[in-house]
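Work Package 3 (structural annotation) set out to generate three-dimensional models for the target panel prioritized at the project kickoff. During this period the team completed the workflow that converts sequence records into discrete structure tokens, so that structures can be stored uniformly alongside our sequence database. As a representative example, we reproduce one entry of 222 residues exactly as it appears in the project archive.
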Amino acid sequence: MIKTDVSDSFLTLLINSILRICIVKDKLLVEFPDSIETKKLIIRKYEKGDGADVLALFDRNNNRTLLQERVDEAAGIITQDDAEIDCRKHTAEWEARERFVMGIWSKSSGRYIGQIWIEPKKWEVPSFELGYFLDIECHGKGLATEASEGALRFLFNELEAYRVEIITRDTNEKSWKLAERLGFEKEGHIRECGIQNGERWGLYHYGMLKREYLFRNEGHRT
């Protein structure tokens, strides 16, 4: 009886290990475009030399101060070398399929105006988390909506996502209103889970399933 239990346990561990290897292999073999084009924007994987554009964004329009509460890079990128290293890390993450971080450039001006990031949650689902930031001067122009809609097409059509999540602070009205405008369902509210400068904040959790995306954007269900 003891031998059977040990054998069963070993077999279970072996099967799980094989499944994990298969999942990783599938993930690394997935091929998809490294850029997204919308009416007004080019959204693409970072390339060598993009650090100068990234640093310029944080240095203008008080973006560093306004973004540092929710964007790690805002506080950590001080020099052009810092920015270039960050861009190259994102390129390496992309190749390893660990994270998909893309810069956003305006078609009309050629200026770098923000970033989209996609975090794989569970490849076996597959599910992902979506986030973004924009230059403050680009707020209120519909560009966040346009960039996010482009990212959703990439997620559901290229990465074949089944589920996409957005997690945002309940104090960030622009962010959660964007999630709702995109058609995400509010799935939960973790209340007062953080504090900053004496003010407490919580987190809204939003989700969208592929059939909901298709119904909203193509008028049919699968």
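The domain at 34-218 is CATH 3.40.630.30 (Aminopeptidase).
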